[in-house]
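Bench log, entry 3. Co-assembly request; chain sequences pasted below exactly as received.
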Amino acid sequence: MKLQQKFFHDFSKLGPLIGLILMVIFLGFMSDDFFTLDNIFNLLRQISVNALIAFGMTFVILTAGIDLSVGSLLALGSALTAGLLSGGMDPILAVLLGLLIGLGLGAINGLIITKGKVAPFIATLATMTIYRGATLVYTDGRPITGLSDSFTFEMIGRGYVFGIPFPVILMLGVFLILYFVLRKTVFGRQVYAIGGNEEASILSGIKADRVKIGVYALTGMLSVLGGVILTSRLNSAQPTAGEMFELDAIAAVVIGGTSLMGGRGRITGTLIGALIIGVIDNGLNLMNVSSFYQQIVKGGVILLAVLLDRKSK
Amino acid sequence: MANTPFVEMKGINKSFSGNQVLKNVNFSINQGEVHALVGENGAGKSTLIKILTGIHKRDQGAIKLNGEEVYFSHPKEAEQQGIMVIHQELNIIPHLTVTENMFIGKNLTYGKTGVLNTKTMRKQCEANLQKLGVSNIHPDDIAGDLSVGKQQMIEIARAISTNAELIVMDEPTAALTDREIESLFDVVESLRKQGVAVIYISHRMEEIFRICDQITVLRDGEYIGTENITDVDFEAIVKMMVGRELGERFPEREHTAGEVIFEVKDLARKGLFQDINFSVKEGEILGVAGLMGAGRSEMVETIFGYARKQNGRLYLNGQELTVKHPSDAIKAGIGFITEDRKSKGLLTDFSIGDNISLTNMKSISKNGVISAKKEHRLIAELMDRLKVKATGAAQEAKALSGGNQQKVVIAKWLGIKPKLLILDEPTRGVDVGAKKEIYSIMNELTKNGVAIIMVSSELPEILGVSDRIMVIHEGKIATILNRDEADQEKIMTAAAGGE
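Structure output for the full assembly:
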C-alpha cells in the first residue's frame, strides 16, 4: 500500500519526463528524420514561443489564476512593435518598448483581477477579446510588413548562435532565470504561498495584490517576447497571430504537473510539457499523420497527464 | 436501565500500516445515555468512531448492537441501524432551504414519479424540529443564512428523522456562541428523554461535567477507563488523559509589566466596534473576553491591518503607526495568531519549514534571494525552541496534531522577534498538554518584554493567564479589570451587557 503510493508519487514527478523519453524513442524508430540535428533544432525552435508563454502561465497558475489573454496580447504587442519598427525606430529600442507594452498590458490584467476583484477567468476572457479587437483596429485587419532590414531584428527569430537557433537560446535563458526565481527568491516563494492559501499569505504579510499583478505582467511580457520572435521569423506582424495560443500554453503547464488549484507545480514540468506538445506535432508530421488526428492525440495526452496526476494523490 | 447496552465495542484493535492506533479498546453506551469520549489529539477517538460507523475495518474485537454482533462495511449500513455522526464540518448545502437539506438523498415523491412531495416534506421537517424543541428555525429558511448553531440543529433533526438511536457529536460546540451552546444542551437533554444515546466528543471539560453521564478516556490508542461523571473531577480526568499529573492548569505567572508599549485610540469600524481605547504594557498579557460575535476578532484583525479601520489611531512606543496592510504591522514588530488556524493561519498543504519561512523572508534573504543556509538554521532553531513534534521540517502542516500546528504558527511569528503578539483563541482545538505548553511560551515571551493581547472565549483561560482583562460587549469596551479584581461572574455580567 505504502510502496504503491510512493511509486505513484515519484512517478507523477517523473511521469511527464518518462512520457517524453518514451515518445522520443518511439519516434526515433518510426522516422529516420526524427533524430537529425536539423529536426531537433527545428522542433526546439517551434516550441520556443509556446514555452515562453507557458513559463509565464506557470506563475499565473501557481497563484491559482489563469490567463486567457496571452494570444491576443501577443498579437497586440507584436503589432505595436512592428508599427514602431516600420516607423524607422531602432530595432533594439522598439523591441524593448514592445516588451514594456506587454508588461503593461499584463499588469492591466492583474489590476482588473486584484483591484477590481474579477475572477481571473472572466477578467482575461474580457481582455482577450479587447486586446484582439485593439489589434484589428490598429492593423486595420492587415499584416504589418516592411519592417526593419536590420540584422539585429532578423537575428531574433531567424538567427543562429554556434549553430543553435537564437529563439531556442532565448527560451532556455528565460527558463534558467525563471527557474531560479521560483526556487530561490522571495517572490517565487510568495507565488506558491498565494496559490496555497491567499488569506493566510496576506496575514503573513505578503502583498498578494502586488505579487499577482507582477505575475500577470511577467506573462504579458513573455507573450510579447514570443510575438517578437514570430514577427521576426515571418518578417511581418499578423493581426491574427497567437490565436488559441492560450490553450497550448495551459496544456503545457498542466501536462507538466502544475495544479490548476495553485500552490503546487514546477517550471521544469512546464518545459517538459511544452516539449511533449512539440514532439507530438513534430513526430506526427514526420509520420504524415493528418493534422486532424494530431488534435485528437494532443487532447488525449493532456487527459492522460491529468489522470496520472490524479492517481498519485 | 436495560441489561444489554445499545452499543458495545469490545477489545477493538486497529493498525494502519504497522502502526497500532487502537489497542484493546472497550466502549459501551446505553439508550438515553450521554457518554463523553475524551483524549488528547491522536488518542484514537476518531478512529474508534470510524470503526463504529464502518468507515474503517477493525482488525480485532467485536461490536454488538443490542447484543447482536454487527459488521458494518459502509457508513450507510450504520445509518440504517440508527447510528449517525454529526461531524465538525457540517453537511449542509448552503443555498438550499432547511427542508431541502433535511431530505437530501431521501426525498419524498408522489409514488415513483420523481415529482417531489414538497408539502409533506415541509410538514415533516417542521415536526422534526418541534420534536427537538427548536422553534426559531423555519422550514423555508435558506440554510446558508442561518448561524452555525442552527445549521447543527438541522443536522440533528435530520438524524432523528431517520430514527437515529445513537448520535455521535464531534466537538459540537467548537463554533457555537454561548447562547447556541445552551440550546444545544437543551436538545441533548430532549434526545436523552427520547431514549437516544449520544456520544459526546469534546475538549471542553466544563461541558462534559454539565451534560454527560459517563466518560471514557483514551490515551495513545489505549483504553484507560470509563467512569461515572459524578465519581471523577477535572484533575482526575486530565490525569487519565495525560498519564501524569499536569499540576496546575496554568503555569505560575509573575507580574512583569513595564512601560506602555502599544496604545489604541478611538478605533472604530462601522457596525462592528467603536470607541475602542486601551493600551498594553511591555511584558503584559491583556485578555480580551466577550461573547462570540462581540467584535473581538474583527477588532484585532483591524489592528493588524487585515481590514480597513474607519477611525482611530495606533501608537507603538509612543510613535503613531500607520497600518494599511498586515505587512506594515509585521514591519513594526506585531505578530498575529489567527483564530482560524486552518484557513487563515497555516498553509496546510505546505511543509512546516515553508510555513515558518513565510513571515521571516526578510531575515533569511538578501536582495530578494533566499539563503538556504539561513533558512534551515532559522527553521531548526524555531522548531527546537517550541518543541514541535514532527518527522522533520519537510512534514506537511496538515499531518500535525492541533497542538503542534499551533506551535508552528507561533514559531513563524517568533521569528520576527515581535514586540506585540496578538493571539486569537490560541488554544482552540488544542489538547490539554499542549495548552499548558502554549501558556508557558506566552509567559516566557512576556518575561522578555513582549506585550500580548489574547482574545479568548474560555473564561478559565482568560482568568488563568491574563494580567488585565478587557471585556467587550457589542463592539464596545464594557470594562477593563485587573487580574485580582476579576472573577467569572464579573466578566460574564459585563460581557452580557449588565452593570
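The first strand of chain A starts at residue 160 and ends at 161. The domain at 35-308 of chain A is CATH 1.10.3470 (ABC transporter involved in vitamin B12 uptake, BtuC).
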